Structure prediction request, 1061 residues.
Amino acid sequence: MRQFLLFFLIVATGITFVSRLFYLQVLNSSTHNLYEDNAIRKVFDYPKRGFVYDRNGELLVANQPSYDVMIIPREVKPLDTLEFCSLLKITKEQFIKTYDKAYHYSPRLPSVFVAHLSKEDYAVLQEKMRKFEGFYIQKRLLRDYQTSIGANVLGFIAEVNPGQIEKNPYYKMGDLIGKQGVELSYEEELRGVKGIKFIQKDRFNRDIGPYKDGKFDTLPKQGKDITITIDAALQEYGEILMQNKHGGIVAIEPSTGEILTLISAPTYNPNLLVGRKRSRNYTQLYNDTINRPLIDRSLQRMHEPGSPFKTLIALAALQEHAIVPEGTVTCTGAYHYGGRRPMGCHCGGGSRDLTRGIAKSCNSYFANAFRKTIGKYNDASHAMDVWSDHIKSFGLGNFLGYDLPIGQPGNIPNGAYYDKWYPDFKWGATTIISNSIGQGEVLVTPIQLANMTAAIANRGFYYTPHIIKDIENQEIDPKYKEIHHTTIDKKYFEPVIQGLNDVYNYGTASFLKVPGIEICGKTGTAENFAKVEGERVQLTDHGIFIAFAPKDDPKIAIAVFVENGYYGARWAGRIASLMIEKYIKGEVTLKQMEKMVLEKSLEEEYAKPYAGKPFTINDGAKVQGLHLKADNDQTN
Amino acid sequence: MIRQTDRNFKFDWITIIIFLLLVGFGWLNILSASHSGETIEYLDFSKSYGKQLLFILLTFVLIVMILSIEAKFYERFASIIYLASMLSLAGLFIFGKNVNGATSWYGIGGMTFQPSEFAKAATALAVAKYLSDLQTDIKTFKGQLQAFAILVVPAILILLQNDAGSTLVYGSFIFVFYREGLPHQYLTLLISTVVMSILSLKFGGVVASIIAITLILTYHFTRKKKPVLIKSLLAILACTILSFGVQFFYENVLKAHQKDRISLWLRLEKDPDKIAEMRRDILYNLYESEKAIRSGGLSGRGFLEGTRTTGKFVPEQHTDYIFSTVGEEWGFMGTVTVVILFVLLLLRVLHLAELQKSQFSRVYGYSVASIIFFHFLINIGMVMGLIPTIGIPLPFFSYGGSSLWGFTILLFIFIKLDSNRINEW
Prediction:
């Protein structure tokens, strides 16, 4: 017995140790990750973020150095706070508050103490920095906007948030990431790849030297410069024209799908979202609920297309052989159907063929065309599906697939849509006749309208609109070179395009002619209902205008949407004509028209519902309660 | 002539091979722990690994010397070796050099020499010599007193030099005495003292006393043959005094860092913030060594690949915490190999000790196993957080010439004694 005590203890100890080791090293082992190893310091080398140029090579976005004062709380030694605060231009209270916050975050890890020092402050501080242990200056690159336009297109960069870090481990706390616009869409190309150095630390947090002689270190990869399709001059001109107005302008080059301008008004100066004041300015822009400058109206504003939609009604009807271009409808000033209240028409009345119908925007003509298209099939639901497919082939009713991060799908109803709406009784063309004049359930965004215009200008096809023109040493996504054919045969476009041309010749936009340019266009107006303090009120109509030019070799297709702009030709049409002249001729000769647009402010119009007083809309017309009228198309 | 050749090589090669494996693997880990990324110069004596290599080379000279001395010499001169060793310990009070708060070193030129590492072997010889004396009877009180006296001398001398860890090593001789006939009451007393101490520290003197009284009374009244009442009452009194005494000792005698180690081990502190702070500050070594071992995983990070080792995150890693380097760089495979090597070595020594013909050799072999076992238990137990921090080296493994030579002498004297047994056949 006595011989076995020690023997037994030795074996028991061996077993205990092996079990404990098994628990520590096998069951509970912390798998090694170089990035999480606190014995290794990671030093990132941030590459230059790519520049952004416009289609003519004009530099829009560059970089500027910025200096952050960083703190490692545990390493801070007693210091002359008074001097330090005055160098940093902060108060002692701020110093204490920021210090506590940094300490609370981590005593060992660096936090930003004061962000974005000016170059002058940096110069002064740099010399004295060695006096303040635990603090150091980190250089970062911020965006430097060479322009004050295109904020909605260019977007902005800001620090990554924890959610993004979790999703993509490339990003570390404090990294900058594109948050909107091309900065977001082309984040990976623009940002490049940061380099990393692993440095072995000892337990006193001192650097010993490169980990494994720098075997795992990587060099930064510079960000790529990109060229965007925007024409900065045209963009700037459009933004000026849209001052004091709310709305959007989208211009596309039909032969490529390149977006020439993407204007959202009101907008802001992109320089507001750079540097030390970024967060305050952003909050201010975010909280501006009346102007809502952070909303991109050209991409996100869904609205009824109004009369420009009649072009598609005609094309679908022609394709379905429901009408022939020469066929006429006699307009009596109203379209009567199904014993219900007639749909009014303001075209002036008379015999309308296709071309004149478009030129004069005759409601009766298109109501008839739509009714015949749907009536072609016995089953209204099926007919609606056929019609819906034709319309959707113009890029409406769904996300277009462009390379900007935001958007709206719009809406093009199909058979199922109305079957759901009217489950109990049969519906037919007359039930949904409002669609024939671009109202009812049809919803589009300005960029969809512009793309639709480009497809008409191309006589039946379009390229997915895109903002990217060129990436340094890299092909752009081939999907932007793919042709999308509409379901309408090319031959049906000519009479419609002639009609659009006649809109300028003798139709609803005859006073918007641009000398020397054959423009095809279409006016549009959409009723405008808004909820003000919980009540549905009618406000002045939205003005809409689409156009392309020149007629036979289209260089630009444009859609203009002016909130509360009243009838389409009034402001939207004028702006479209000016934009087309500016783009094609490079200068504007219609000085009178330009002056009118520049001087017109719609601010008063936007303020009306908030003034708390009774008001009139559409230049004096009294609002008759909350009636719904189908015959809103006042002048077109 | 043939017989003569045989004699020289009839050593227990199993033990020698395990010894070589431990020393060799130990050196690789010392290299890792003391190397911080520069090119390795094996004979650079400014580096720990370079010095240790020199110590190892000199160890072989030492081994040859030990093995060539006649076995009888160790028995005959045991008392003189013991006396010399005690003098070298006592001499520290005059000539000693203070390192890290302990006066355990002689400084000779650039080298230091730690006599307490050699005192273990000397004490083992003295104990073997005393117990193998025909006149000694460990079953008598006088015999026990004298045997303990042999241990108490070096223990006190070392304690006075402020090296509590090395003092505790002499407690391991209890196994030797027990093997040689020490009444089992001593072991019972030792175990109940340890248990009572832990109970009273953990739950307080009152609870511990109540538990002890209940147990003793249950024992007293359930035994068929009634134990003497006065004995039971004395036992109760002793337990009560002990449980409050331990608390007093803990509160008033122990130094702050010793208190903290025990407090953390027994989880006496309840405030989580305080615990976190203690773990960071006092148990920093343990915290870091556990982390290093964990990060090794099944197969380790690879030789010279451990970041916590390279970064010297574990203080004293090449000495007392060398096992954490094994853990980080060699993983579970490496640590289990080391544990198995030690277990095999200990069992082999134990087995050989039992085979000895002479009592002197058997007692000495038992002492060797007990001492190495104690170091193995305390050091690895501590590095893994199973035992409160007690700073003693891992035999053959930890950095340090004195420690390496001390253990080599201890082990190889036994190998020599053992070879003598073989030769006697």
Chain B has two domains: 2-178+292-424, 183-253. The first helix of chain B runs from residue 2 to 9. DSSP finds 20 helices and three strands in chain B.
